Amino acid sequence: MFDVDQYLKAIGFAGQPRPDAETLRTLHKGHLMAIPYDSSWNAERGISIWRDVDIDVDAVFDDIVIGGRGGNCYELNGLFRRLLDEIGFDTAVLSAGIRQVDGTFGPDLEHVFNRVELDGRTWLADVGFVGPSYLEPLVLSDDEQPQFGSRFRIARQDDYRVVERKPQTGDWQPVYRFRPQARDFQEWSGDQRELVEFAQQLVGAGTVIRGRAFDTGQMILIGRRYLEVDNGHDAMRVLVEQDELDRVVRTILRADR
């Protein structure tokens, strides 16, 4: 059963939460550090990955916050949105197409995250994306926004906005693109041929994605490809040995850092 106090304790938040920018930043980063992303739970859903995008908050809370399993984008961001609503933030649902390896973007409804209206500004809050991405919410603005050694900006592309990241070395790279208008969960129902075809590719590939943030960066495991981002420095390697892979998985899922 959803419980604000239990939730705050689980993500390491102390004190009285208030609907302000400082609280939003602290909750966002704390959530990413405390609760992992884990796509292994998608395997049982098959091509119906987005079937339950409008989550049963109480059941998912019991599974993830109390039970300790990781979650996918709409589970983690759905829980976080409920937490923000309970505290008094003004939230809405957004969706995005994630940049693929070939440089294209996935379907618009592929990824589910949150919008927060606060102090006359729009913020992006996303605790359900494995990364590399932002540890603290981004303001929907053309300005560059530095975070923990990386820089972020939100570029305009026709009627889309594109979140872009620049590490310490290297060029700007898109993370995902989105439209800033709020989404309705009904948009995920009905004939979603593009989304189903995309899900078939994901399920067919069978690649498990896991990730967790730490104080200055993120651990990202896609199959056997392990990326660690620390203060804006990206270090990628392939985990060939099973023992090393198992150790990294344990570290991500249990926060043994």
TrEMBL record:
- Whether Transferase counts among this entry's keywords is yes
Domain of life assignment: Bacteria
Q: Which UniProt keywords apply?
A: Transferase
For whether the record's keyword set contains Transferase, the answer is: yes
What GO terms are given for molecular function?
acetyltransferase activity
Which InterPro entries does the UniProt record give?
Arylamine_N-AcTrfase (IPR001447), Papain-like_cys_pep_sf (IPR038765)
Spell out the family assignment given in the record's similarity comment: Belongs to the arylamine N-acetyltransferase family.
Output this protein's name.
Arylamine N-acetyltransferase
